From TrEMBL:
Signal peptide: 1-24
Organism in which the protein naturally occurs: Fomitopsis schrenkii
Keyword Signal belongs to the record: yes
Name of the protein in its database record: Barwin domain-containing protein
Keywords assigned by UniProt, alphabetized: Signal
């Protein structure tokens, strides 16, 4: 099995892999986009290849846990330093977003599906 891929019986048949979520300590330091976020925010770091020139900064992403179908929205606020340059299968999530998808931090990684929302769109949080 190639590193970076999480096999799952919940993947659609036409996909041989699922995308994966990991988490990182946001810690209040400025991310690649220059914002200071916290571990409790719904923060997402994307790979270098998706980051590009930063055109996805502050764009919301819909993320769904393939195992339990829990879904959350996360805001693109950083570049994933642990992702390979062309790693398009992984999102690095803040701890609260990772746990909000129904997984304990000790799990470390799980299968997801995700997509960017339209630029300018924002979820309505209670």
């Amino acid at each position: 099995m190639r590193a970076g891929y999480v096999p799952s019986s919940r993947c659609p048949v036409f996909l041989l892999i699922c995308l994966q979520a990991t988490y990182y300590e946001v810690g209040g330091a400025a991310g690649a986009f220059g914002y200071h976020d916290s571990d409790s925010g719904h923060v997402v770091a994307i790979s270098h290849s998706i980051y590009g020139s930063g055109s996805n900064c502050n764009q919301w992403i819909h993320i769904k846990n393939m195992k339990n179908d829990k879904a959350q929205y996360g805001k693109t606020r950083d570049r994933c330093s642990g992702c390979g340059q062309y790693d398009i299968v992984r999102l690095d999530l803040s701890p609260s977003l990772f746990q909000g998808l129904g997984e304990p931090l000790g799990k470390g990684v799980f299968g997801i599906e995700w997509h960017f929302m339209a630029k300018g769109w924002s979820p309505e949080f209670p």
